[in-house]
Amino acid sequence: VQLVESGGGLVQPGGSLKLSCVGSGFTFNKYVLKWYRQTPGKEREVVALVSSDGESAWYAEAVKGRFTVARDNDKKTNYLQMSNLNPGDTAIYYCNIFHFWGQGTRVTVSS
After folding, report:
1. Sheet holding 67-72, edge to edge
2. CA–CA separation, 97 vs 93, rounded Å?
3. SS3 of 15, please?
4. From CA 99, how far away is CA 88, in angstroms rounded?
5. Cβ(50)–Cβ(71) under 8 Å?
6. Residue 104: partners with Cβ closer than 8 Å, 6 or more residues away
7. Which residues contact 88 (CB under 8 A, 6 or more apart)?
8. How far apart are CA 74 and CA 48, in angstroms?
9. What is the DSSP letter of 76?
10. Tens-digit pLDDT profile for residues 27-59
11. According to DSSP H, which parts of 15-109 are helical?
């Protein structure tokens, strides 16, 4: 199993970023996919997940209304569209399935 995230970067408060996670080595369209984030000194926290068919999603309260998770099973890619970002969203964002993790992509929200 391999998960490869991309799309992180530096963005100003109020800005947007779209993260991507390409999966391989498993039957992509059969599993729920999750996005986590982690900041130094804190535990990794789940921010969003999407059902195997992409029809259902769940969001942490901290990101609800600002983040949108989606997936393209044909492209074996999971997306996290992040809008109205604030400094509290600064973290390394990880894609997850079961106990498999990507390498993470860093998001920094700062003016």
Report:
1. 2-6, 17-24, 77-82, 67-72
2. 14
3. coil
4. 26
5. yes
6. 5, 38, 92, 93, 94
7. 62, 109
8. 21
9. T
10. 999 999 999 999 988 999 999 999 999 999 999
11. none
